[in-house]
Amino acid sequence: MTHKWTVFLSGEIHTDWRQQIQQGADAAGLTIDFVSAVTDHARSDECGEKILGPEENKFWYDHKASGINAIRTRTLIERADLVVVRFGDKYRQWNAAFDAGYAVALGKSLITLHDEELTHPLKEVDGAANAVCQTPEQVVEILKYVLLER
Amino acid sequence: MTHKWTVFLSGEIHTDWRQQIQQGADAAGLTIDFVSAVTDHARSDECGEKILGPEENKFWYDHKASGINAIRTRTLIERADLVVVRFGDKYRQWNAAFDAGYAVALGKSLITLHDEELTHPLKEVDGAANAVCQTPEQVVEILKYVLLER
Amino acid sequence: MTHKWTVFLSGEIHTDWRQQIQQGADAAGLTIDFVSAVTDHARSDECGEKILGPEENKFWYDHKASGINAIRTRTLIERADLVVVRFGDKYRQWNAAFDAGYAVALGKSLITLHDEELTHPLKEVDGAANAVCQTPEQVVEILKYVLLER
Amino acid sequence: MTHKWTVFLSGEIHTDWRQQIQQGADAAGLTIDFVSAVTDHARSDECGEKILGPEENKFWYDHKASGINAIRTRTLIERADLVVVRFGDKYRQWNAAFDAGYAVALGKSLITLHDEELTHPLKEVDGAANAVCQTPEQVVEILKYVLLER
Amino acid sequence: MTHKWTVFLSGEIHTDWRQQIQQGADAAGLTIDFVSAVTDHARSDECGEKILGPEENKFWYDHKASGINAIRTRTLIERADLVVVRFGDKYRQWNAAFDAGYAVALGKSLITLHDEELTHPLKEVDGAANAVCQTPEQVVEILKYVLLER
Amino acid sequence: MTHKWTVFLSGEIHTDWRQQIQQGADAAGLTIDFVSAVTDHARSDECGEKILGPEENKFWYDHKASGINAIRTRTLIERADLVVVRFGDKYRQWNAAFDAGYAVALGKSLITLHDEELTHPLKEVDGAANAVCQTPEQVVEILKYVLLER
Amino acid sequence: MTHKWTVFLSGEIHTDWRQQIQQGADAAGLTIDFVSAVTDHARSDECGEKILGPEENKFWYDHKASGINAIRTRTLIERADLVVVRFGDKYRQWNAAFDAGYAVALGKSLITLHDEELTHPLKEVDGAANAVCQTPEQVVEILKYVLLER
Amino acid sequence: MTHKWTVFLSGEIHTDWRQQIQQGADAAGLTIDFVSAVTDHARSDECGEKILGPEENKFWYDHKASGINAIRTRTLIERADLVVVRFGDKYRQWNAAFDAGYAVALGKSLITLHDEELTHPLKEVDGAANAVCQTPEQVVEILKYVLLER
């Protein structure tokens, strides 16, 4: 299998789960192109105002940022072979669920990653997933199995 | 415009926003085919176990229900010309955001409906919407405008 | 939900499961357009030779029939909202599994219907299904739930 | 023709037909990216439980494995220019027929590979194929012809 | 040909070309479903503010209106078999050219309607059209020919 | 099967094969929506000049006609469930082969209809067909089988 | 993110905005594949006549050129991840708006670039854009943010 | 423009037009991936029998060959950015017209190449083309213009 895989990592940005997956993949000798939205929260919120000019109205302030962020996320989800979506225990994380729905409608494979407590509220998202993981290690194990047959 | 519109109403199931939109549309003489997921919460949760047999494990209990519910929701979203997604102030409502992402990836028009307090957490979903409403009346006004030019 | 559903019934042709589903749906007041391949085995095997002329070689005899049968099955699967595939305990039934793969790639919802003994050999097909049923009654219950919310 | 071809080899895993095709292609100087599902039977059955945790119920044990295996097979079939599906004389091999249907619906070219005795039960699958082979050598000859014009 | 045609009429809103086409089609006994954007200029500009609330900033004022108008135009262009785009001698009419590009990318047939003086600036749009007309009567003649073979 | 079939009849216009198929279908009680290009040769050639004005250059004379004719043929092929293409023994009939290629790329079922002498030059077109017929009666028999199961 | 981005620059050809964006991207260390239509106005107008032979009629003179130019623009827009469309204060620039519509229908991200005075006539095009810029520097800032997260 | 173009050369195989285009492109410094069907007539006719075994019936002899040839042609047309189809003055060349229709339905750019005498019988194919050439040099000029802007 010489073609490189692209994996989009979506969702929660307050823990180091992306780094854990990437390090696990590196340690296993996997050469995967991991991509994601801009994960610096402040930068991601401010990008509209910073680049396109100030907005007094909070709605348009957010709207400008979300348009720019979508350039990145839509393009990268479309390139991805697999989308991993992480739900944490804080915040609404509607963008994560939106990404999951978007990916599934495009026919992408989906892995969700969350604690057992979130099983019930995530049942529709999990129902569309190929695998439901609780730890980044499990995601790495799936990647090793899928890419290296081990 | 003789072809009937189909509008999928997704999201929050604890208030009567669907009825308000439907009644407003009826009052305006609009002939729209309103569709939605099964909105009876208990029935929607139990359908897997009731039809396909009991599961001790809560995860599989939910999984069976979500597979059956997806038969309905995916088919109806694909038929819809427009998807309206309502976010309330309670619960995680990840299925609503998932539906929004799914609809946008299929190229459907999207209207979101929520209170102003939810503007920031919903910025990515709102950013993909044609219109962001705060009341069911506004949704009805859009439908009147779009279908009847008034 | 005024738009009629189309359900393609694929697979085993030696028991009356199609009639059971249809009668159950009728009894429940469901107005579904049930469609399927030509289910008269002899007719389905002979159609190529009968219409297009005899073939000594068994391979081409079958090939002619399968081309004609595909006109019907492909068109009806593409029209269907939902595909139900029944696997019995006899014969290879590779056409049933082929239909399932074809339907899933087109994004159709899938229900499989088979005895528990077939769970392991059907794991990839079941894995792509929204629901795995063991009796025609369960299929009818799903249709009632999905179309009538009961 | 500088663009490399990707060929997905699906189906029977108990003989060395994949190796024969690969060696024949190597001997002919073809540079093809051959891909396939995980072909180690035990590993393929166990992957769900091993990675995601144990299941008492055999159905869910299989379900978890099949979700993970689908990440690999769906992605690789979508990348493939050509899918070769081998049917042996043992086992149900419904996954092979499912892959064939999936590939055809995506517009992929299809070659089937099986003994003459299987002609009748495979008539629908063969009817959708570009070529029906009885030996791995024939598949190699087709690849040589298609890629090298010899 | 029992299936009714849907024709989207896009562009210039200051002359009665839409009425001329519709009357010509009626006179010829054609039963076509003519659709278009909301053609009342003031209403079309104001709809965002009127329904969703006032905006001081002219950019957001227009943005809200254009989101709502797109619900109508995108849905109707997707339904259409044929798109007719009229360019007049006044105003920029970029929305008309945008509709033409949108329609062509969706594989719709396109007729442009404009005076000879606009030939050069419209060369890319005309180059993508099935026919370039100078009068509404010519459009009607094409519809008669295409639907009635006269 | 309550949904009506649409069948596009393409190709040769100098014999009454279309009428034979339509009468055979009527006699069998089939309710099919038969559609085709404008089959009046002179009218089809002249439509560009007649509607859009004269051209001295024969190339542009034909070009204008072919653009208008494509509005009809593309739309009707896209609507069709099945395309029947008839090749006669005279003329080049490249438009018939073009229609066949167009239909196959859209995933339509294809029947070719021609004498045995044309087998070799039509091998690529026949190779993409579900059935290769020599008489209109055979086409009618296929339609009866496919729609009525007889 | 190892996959290179392709950005199509469409529209106005009388100022050096393309060079400014390219230089800004180079200075920021971005490795983007910038593509565009042939921007030499005379060459772009003459290409049909020069290559395919003279035309007395201005309409066909333009038609030949636009067919050739479309080979380049359609292919490059389809390859692009992002389309930037610049509207200047002179000329009709309908091809720019056509490109924008074409790109949006294909699901491409869109950035528009124009002065504030054009806000109202461009409201439909801007309404479909991810970002509306007034200077090439803003476009470069978006590219830096989207590709480099800064 | 760093991405390489792929150009499929379809049709007539009895003159050296492919070589002329390739040499002209080389001389101009163009790095294009030219692809085509197997152009050795005898080999192309025999490939089915040679690889898959003899057929007495001429129809099936051709059918086997055409299935194998389609593996190559369909894959390469799908990869192509541009399809050039050459019609000569001999033979029926229905496969060339089929390829043209197939390519256009996939949204590929099309160039036709033929003598002026064939203008009328090719009007539908030419009508779908971006450019109609009479000499291989003209095709080379278009490639130079489209890729190098000269």
Strand line-up across the major sheet of chain A: 2-1-3-4-5
Overall 3D geometry of chain A? Answer: globular
Radius of gyration of chain A: 16 Å
Q: Count the helices of chain A. How many?
A: 6
Q: Helix proportion of residues of chain A, in percent? A: 40-55%
Largest sheet of chain A: 5 strands, parallel
**H-E order of chain A:** EHEHHEHEHEH
Question: Which SSEs are present, and which pair or pack?
Answer:
The structure is a homooctamer of 150-residue chains.
Chain A: E1 5-11, H1 17-27, E2 32-35, H2 41-52, H3 58-79, E3 82-86, H4 94-105, E4 109-113, H5 123-127, E5 131-133, H6 136-148
Parallel strand pairs in A: 1-2, 1-3, 3-4, 4-5
Structure described in brief:
With 150 residues, chain A is an alpha/beta fold. Chain A has helices at 17-27, 41-52, 58-79, 94-105, 123-127, 136-148; strands spanning 5-11, 32-35, 82-86, 109-113, 131-133. In chain A, 50% of the residues lie in helices and 16% in strands.
Account of the protein in words:
- Chain A is α/β, with parallel strands linked by helices.
- Chain A has helices spanning 17-27, 41-52, 58-79, 94-105, 123-127, 136-148; strands at residues 5-11, 32-35, 82-86, 109-113, 131-133.
- Chain A has a five-stranded parallel beta sheet with strand order 2-1-3-4-5, with helices on both faces.
- In chain A, strand 3 (82-86), helix 4 and strand 4 (109-113) form a beta-alpha-beta unit.
- In chain A, helix 1 (17-27) packs parallel to helix 6 and helix 2 (41-52) crosses helix 3 (58-79).
- The mean pLDDT of chain A is 96.
